[in-house]
Specification:
This protein has two domains: about 1-35; about 40-120. It is mainly α. About 85% of the residues lie in helices and about 0% in strands.
């Protein structure tokens, strides 16, 4: 293979890395999938190892983490309910200013938004 072919191959490979990386970045940024979900076992194991927790401390830590996780989940559900109420109120206000011709288009848009939110939140 000639030197020029190697250069073209390397440039094509580098371009593929840049385009692929950009696509992954955009997908993760637009969907909010940057962070992994909380892993309770990994968290407890990390604290156990790094803090040299005793066997008596580990169950207490697990109880604390479980309680905190439940509180966060309840808080998120409360926030979701509030956001849904605000979203619905906003949509109702928008519906009031739309003409009969615009209403079906808006309903279709709202349906797509809901589907997208469900798809990315699960």
């Amino acid at each position: 293979m000639s030197r020029r072919a190697y250069i073209y191959f390397a440039l094509t490979f580098a371009l593929g890395l840049v385009v692929g990386g950009t696509c992954v970045y955009y997908y993760a940024w637009s969907t909010g999938h940057w962070r992994r979900p909380f892993n309770r076992q990994s968290f407890v194991q990390r604290l156990k190892t790094e803090l040299s927790l005793s066997d008596d401390q580990v169950p207490k830590l697990e109880k604390i983490v479980d309680g905190s996780t439940a509180r966060v989940r309840n808080s998120q559900q409360g926030c979701d309910a509030q956001l849904n109420a605000i979203r619905e109120e906003t949509r109702n206000q928008i519906r009031q200013i739309l003409s009969p011709q615009q209403s079906p288009k808006f309903e279709e848009m709202a349906r797509r938004w809901d589907e997208r939110r469900k798809r990315f939140n699960h």
